[in-house]
């Protein structure tokens, strides 16, 4: 068994095997230690609330729930879910021994383990990632921004939009609309980025717009001086020679 000190100087004892379990991450281990601490140090065997666990492990409440579910999946914890929100928890010490505790907090009733089983959510997560990759590549091709880097942060706005029920075709349309407007604009071209295109404040507005029918570059001529040199696009296009709006 491995022994860890709690804040009172007493020992919290946990199995070596859980430390060596590759399916248990640091959050899961921290939650297990907190559960063991409360059970070992409280004669009434009252299970700590999720808020207490979150505070002690420095994790969010959702992260604590995920860890409890994973501990259950990996056979380090058993949860007997009962009507009325009264659950019985069994921490597994070894195959033949467990320690029990109960909680009566109705507001903290945990979901069934199969609801948040990460293995069952992998397919949906992979689908979002695959579509996000496709949308990002489409943006690069349409905008000509070959140096735009694909990172977790740049894909996140796309994934959020997909989870909010916007389709791949919706995102393609937004890219077409804004590329037709900003692609040749030196000022606005930098905004051809997922963080702008699919931001909550912009996405519905951009989706309702139509693709502008731009003239080809060779057809653009300044009516004032006849020059074909210009900067910008659409309504913001200006002649470089006479500096007037085209």
Query: N- to C-terminal separation?
Result: 79 Å
Instruction: Please estimate the helix content.
Output: 40-55%
Q: How would you spell out the order of helices and strands?
A: EEHHHHEEEHHHHHEE
Judging by the overall fold, what is the CATH architecture of the largest domain? Orthogonal Bundle
Mind telling me the CATH superfamily name of the largest domain? Winged helix-like DNA-binding domain superfamily/Winged helix DNA-binding domain
Radius of gyration (CA) equals: 28 Å
Q: Kindly provide the name of the CATH class of the largest domain.
A: Mainly Alpha
Q: Walk across the major sheet and give the strand order.
A: 3-4-5
Beta-sheet strand percentage?
5-15%
Overall form: rod-shaped
> How many strands, which pairing sense, and closed or not: the largest β-sheet?
3 strands, antiparallel
Low-confidence stretches: 40-46, 100-107, 112-119
Q: How many domains comprise the coordinates?
A: 3
Explain briefly what this protein structure is:
This protein is an alpha+beta fold and 246 residues long. The protein has helices at residues 16-20, 26-41, 50-57, 61-73, 118-143, 152-163, 168-182, 194-197, 203-207; strands spanning 2-5, 11-14, 77-80, 87-94, 97-103, 230-231, 238-239.
Considering the chains and any ligands shown, give keywords for the structure.
246 residues, two-stranded antiparallel sheet, Arc Repressor Mutant, subunit A, alpha+beta, 3 domains, rod-shaped, 3-stranded antiparallel sheet
Written description of the protein model:
The chain has three domains: 2-115, Orthogonal Bundle (Arc Repressor Mutant, subunit A); 124-213, no CATH class; 215-246, no CATH class. Helix content is 42%, strand content 13%. It has helices at 16-20, 26-41, 50-57, 61-73, 118-143, 152-163, 168-182, 194-197, 203-207, and strands spanning 2-5, 11-14, 77-80, 87-94, 97-103, 230-231, 238-239. Strand 3 and strand 4 (87-94) form a beta hairpin. Helix 5 (118-143) packs across helix 6 and helix 5 runs parallel beside helix 7 (168-182). The longest helix has 26 residues, at 118-143.
């Amino acid at each position: 068994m491995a022994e860890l000190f709690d804040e009172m100087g007493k020992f919290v004892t946990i199995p070596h095997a859980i430390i060596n379990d590759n399916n248990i991450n640091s959050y899961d281990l921290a939650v297990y230690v907190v559960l063991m601490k409360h059970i070992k140090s409280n004669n009434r065997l009252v299970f700590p609330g999720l808020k207490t666990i979150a505070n002690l492990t420095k994790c969010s409440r959702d992260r604590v729930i995920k860890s409890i579910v994973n501990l259950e999946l990996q056979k380090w914890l058993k949860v007997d879910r009962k009507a009325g929100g009264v659950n019985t928890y069994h921490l597994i010490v070894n195959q033949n021994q467990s320690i029990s505790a109960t909680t009566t907090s109705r507001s903290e009733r945990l979901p069934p383990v199969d609801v948040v089983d990460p293995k069952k959510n992998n397919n949906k997560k992979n689908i979002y990632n695959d579509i996000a990759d496709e949308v990002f590549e489409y943006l690069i091709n349409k905008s000509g921004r070959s140096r735009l880097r694909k990172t977790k942060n740049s894909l996140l706005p796309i994934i959020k939009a997909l989870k909010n029920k916007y389709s791949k075709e919706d995102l393609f349309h937004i890219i077409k609309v804004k590329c037709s407007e900003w692609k040749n604009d030196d000022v606005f071209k930098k905004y051809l980025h997922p963080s702008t295109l699919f931001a909550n404040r912009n996405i519905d507005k951009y989706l309702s717009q139509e693709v502008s029918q731009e003239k080809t570059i060779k057809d653009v001529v300044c009516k004032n001086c006849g020059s074909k040199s210009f900067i910008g696009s659409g309504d913001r296009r200006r002649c470089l020679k006479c500096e007037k709006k085209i």
